[in-house]
Amino acid sequence: MRHQRLRGRLGVKTKHRKALLRNLVRNLVIHKRIKTTLAKAKAACSFADRMVELAKKGDLHSRRLLISRLGCPQTARLLVDQIAPHFKERHGGYTRVLHLSPWRVGDGSQMALLEFTAIMEAPEKSKKPKKAKREKEKESRPEVSTEKSKKEKETPVSEAAQEKEKKPAAPKKESEKKGGFLNALRKFLKGDEESH
């Protein structure tokens, strides 16, 4: 029986759940806001609050605890240096869960946003430059007009092209393959194998 078991199990084993929550909090620290299912957001909310509480202490022991629980020294450093200073006067309530109206199409799960309550700037997304190849292709394409295409269809084909069409194509010879089981089998089936 699950009497007084307040934590949601999220339908996975313990190790999987710990890894899932760890990854959600890592992404929350990096991106300042994540979109996930409502159940995962609620579970990650309490875990993230505990991590911020540790980060607010800022001593060596709490930093080591953060690294061991998050599994990432860079994320622990971000928590202590950038996020914890926003919550100096606050005692709890570091994150919030906002319900999103569209349900997920695949399985009908309720979606939610998990974010920090303090106003922080999200990291800018790096925009990839447009490929020059696509631009060159657009420039090199001739504009198609109906009159030009009709004229091109009506023009006679050059003499060299006509000669190529008149000549029958030479039969293709099978390339001689060197050695190997398949080559020996091929020769055997064709009857080309020489007796040794």
For the structure shown, list the relevant keywords:
single chain; 196 residues; mainly alpha; 50s Ribosomal Protein L17, Chain: A; 3-stranded antiparallel β-sheet; 8 helices; 3 strands; 8% strand
Walk me through this protein's architecture.
The structure is a single chain. This protein is mainly α. It starts with 13 loop residues before the first helix and ends in a 6-residue tail after the last helix. Helix 2 (38-57) crosses helix 4 and helix 3 (60-70) crosses helix 4 (73-83). The mean pLDDT is 83. The longest helix is centred in the N-terminal third of the chain and has 20 residues, at 38-57. The chain has a domain at 14-116: 50s Ribosomal Protein L17, Chain: A. The chain has a 3-stranded antiparallel beta sheet, covered by helices on one side. It has helices at residues 14-31, 38-57, 60-70, 73-83, 132-140, 146-154, 159-166, 181-190; strands spanning 33-37, 95-99, 111-116.
